Amino acid sequence: RRSSVQDLLHSTELDREVLVRGWVRTRRGNKYVQFIAVNDGSGFNSIQVVANAEQFPEEKLKADGVENGAAVQVRGQLVASQGKGQSVEIQASEISVYGKADTETYPLQKKGHSLEFLREIAHLRPRTNTFGAVLRIRHAMAFAVHQYFNDHGFYYVHTPIITGSDAEGAGQMFRVTTLPDQNPPLTEDKTGVDYKQDFFGKQTNLTVSGQLEGEIAAMALGKVYTFGPTFRAENSNTARHLAEFWMIEPEVAFNDLQDNMDLAEDFLRYLVRYALKNCQDDLKFLNEQYDKELLTRLQFVVDNEFQRLNYTEAVEILKTAKQKFEFPVDWGTDLQSEHERYLVEKHFKKPVILTNYPKDIKAFYMKLNDDGKTVRAMDVLFPGIGEIIGGSEREESLEKLTQRMAEMNVPEHDLWWYLELRKYGTAPHSGFGLGFERLILFVTGMANIRDVIPFPRFPKSAEF
Ligand code: 4AD
Ligand code: MG
Q1: Nearest ligand to the C-alpha of residue 389?
Q2: What distance in angstroms lies between residue 433's CA and the mean position of ligand 1's atoms?
Q3: Domain containing 40 — which CATH number?
Q4: Quick one: which atom of ligand 1 is closest to the CA of 241?
Q5: 8 A C-beta contact, residue 121 and residue 169
Q6: Which of 54, 262, 375, 389 is the most exposed place for a label (fewest CB within 10 A)?
Q7: Which GO terms describe its biological process (predicted)?
Q8: Tell me: the pLDDT tens digits for 292-312?
């Protein structure tokens, strides 16, 4: 029976025959004994396979291809280890190779590789320590997202990826079209619609956010969330932006902005706590390898409340800051990531929730405050990241919403159904969007968003 490497490493049942399959990470040793580290992806650590020279002379291992990168099966006795660094090891009785990896050409050599180089070999980088750790943490965080919402009575709703409306009203969408030679037959079309360019006669795009459809569900199920891919045709040539990213968007009926902030803060602290508890080996490695402050920073977020203040107060702080900014700040301007990071990293030295932004720099659906100038928006700002969450209380008045849409040139005919939510049984409600990759950036301490998603989409990337 086959065991996972992690199960064996934690096993107390010794002196028994075991079987593992995985990939060779290193082979070293001398003419008496060879040590082969085998990793099967089940966790960060590899298991040490001990091969005695009588049965496995080095020349034979070499000839068989038992080298870095090869896929192998090992049979042997699980025994207490004599060596430092591991408590158990396998005394090999049989080693077979499924597939060799030519030592001359295999791109992943024993020496470390730069993250830039690894980005060019996205098909092999999951085999490195770094990407194994990142991918396992990414999985754990996705699982924790569902766990949190399920435990708190939320329903998971699947919102469409192909959509006819622009949820953010920002025009940053990718168009969906059919290939010219795969058009549906024109026989049913009496309207003169050009199928050549459209989705069965309608102009559609890839979604920028599942929020508006999430609101539909919240108006029936009360507490819901979406978790899916979203697409933005914006300049994504930064270390914080992707053209395709995953977003988590809870939406809750009867929640106001205060409730929304409480939810965002509780949710983020839960996720970080979950990572600290369940991803110890991977986090320890990333902490040692890339970012000595990582574990301390994660613990800090778990232990400390976020600073809450409104946009107007933040602008005052920024205007009197000693630091010189590339972009000047004045009331009414959108904050750049240098400003967000100043507030978080230099001024408050903790995560910040900023609220009540000027209406002109925020989306059409946000609830207008009584001052007529600001909206009930909230952004959560994190150290090293800047904006990790954007959300708001939604405008629930039909009259005010139609007025805002007119002011901002958001076409009513695309969103007639959204307006009907305000016409029939409208209620206060709030929600937010957490950028999943920004969360993974924070939790792993990685510096570039292209290194926390298996296949990053950004300008000039379409290899896979
Ligand atoms: O602030 P945004 O644009 O808000 C929305 O889309 C709302 N509909 C959310 C809601 O209220 N339901 O995006 C939300 C979050 C940002 O805070 C950021 O973390 C992430 O999504 N994000 C990106 N992540 C990676 N690449 C990009 N290009 C991103 N754009 C936004
Ligand atoms: Mg935003």
Answers
A1: 1
A2: 6
A3: 2.40.50.140
A4: 26
A5: no
A6: 54
A7: asparaginyl-tRNA aminoacylation
A8: 999 999 999 999 999 999 999
Q: Which of 16, 52, 20 is nearest to 33 (CA)?
A: 52
For 273, residues 6+ apart whose C-beta sits below 8 A from its C-beta are 302
Same domain as 169, residue 69: no
ipTM metric: 0.99
Closest protein CA for atom 31 of ligand 1: 435
The whole-angstrom separation of Cα 389 and Cα 203 is 30
Domain count, the chain: 2
> CB under 6 Å to ligand 1: residues?
167-168, 209, 211, 232, 234, 236, 241-242, 245, 247, 249, 387-392, 431-433, 435, 437-438
Q: Are residues 21 and 169 in the same domain?
A: no
List of long-range contacts for 359-362, beta carbons under 8 Å, 24+ apart: 359/404, 360/332, 361/332, 361/333, 361/334, 362/392
Residues 88, 214, single domain; the answer is no
Domain of 250, CATH number, reads 3.30.930.10
pTM of the entire predicted model: 0.95
The whole-number average pLDDT for the span 268-294 is: 97
Separation of 233 CA from ligand 1 center, angstroms?
A: 13
Looking from the CA of residue 208, the nearest atom of ligand 1 is 6
For all residues of the chain together, what is the average pLDDT? 94
Q: Give the position, in ligand 1's atom list, of the atom nearest the Cα of 232.
A: 28
pLDDT tops 80 at residue 101: yes
Same domain membership, residue 296 and residue 359:
yes
